[in-house]
Amino acid sequence: MNDLNDDFVRHISSEFNEELEALRRSTIEMGGLVEEQLRSALQFYSTQDSSLLSQTGEIEKKINAAEIDLDEQVESLIVRRQPIASDLRLVLAVSKIVRDLERMGDELENVGRLSLECFPRGSEVGVPEIQRIAEQVAKMLSESLTAFARLDLTLARDIFEREREVDKIYQSALRAL
């Protein structure tokens, strides 16, 4: 077990432990919503099934609500518990993760709308690089949530390194378009 995980387990206040665990769990649940939205957006991209576009929008509403709830949890925890050291780092990390997940949700909703505008029904959809990017991003999102849940720094670093590869594929897609 790493030091961060040891500190997490050893709190004097079991109530504080429960609050931190609830914060982590809620963050992972929000990440699950983003994963679901990503699947819907990608399925819409490949099938142009408009029912998936409305599903993506509904999931976006849930993601926005989760962001508000988690922001309130973070604020409340900081004010009431005044966490220090690894606890404060965890709480601040959650705050940043939540902001990034919400932004991903916004972007995924945009992907659906742009797919509809750029690729009319019946047209050949996209370029092969887009599918490769989508697969890599989905895998990285899932693994990022796993790394956070397990506090696995090795996996987190590996994901960070692989992001550079996705950037290269993205540049290739831009050239193709």
Q: Mind explaining what this structure looks like?
A:
The chain has 177 residues and is an all-alpha fold. It has helices spanning 3-9, 14-47, 50-81, 85-118, 128-150, 153-176. The chain starts with a helix and ends with a helix. It is globular. The protein is built from six helices and no strands. The mean pLDDT is 86.
Q: Percent of residues in helical segments?
A: over 70%
Q: Which structural class should the secondary elements be placed in?
A: mainly alpha
Task: Describe the main β-sheet briefly.
Answer: none
Q: What gap, in angstroms, lies between the N and C termini?
A: 47 Å
Radius of gyration: 19 Å
Order of helices and strands: HHHHHH
Q: Which segments are poorly predicted (pLDDT under 50) over 5 or more consecutive residues?
A: none
- Shape, principal axes of CA atoms: globular
- How many alpha or pi helices? 6
Beta fraction of the residues?
Answer: under 5%
Average pLDDT confidence is 86
Number of strands: 0
Layout of secondary structure:
Blueprint: H1 3-9, H2 14-47, H3 50-81, H4 85-118, H5 128-150, H6 153-176
Main features:
globular, 87% helix, 177 residues, mainly alpha
Brief summary:
This protein is an all-alpha fold and 177 residues long. The protein is built from 6 helices and no strands.
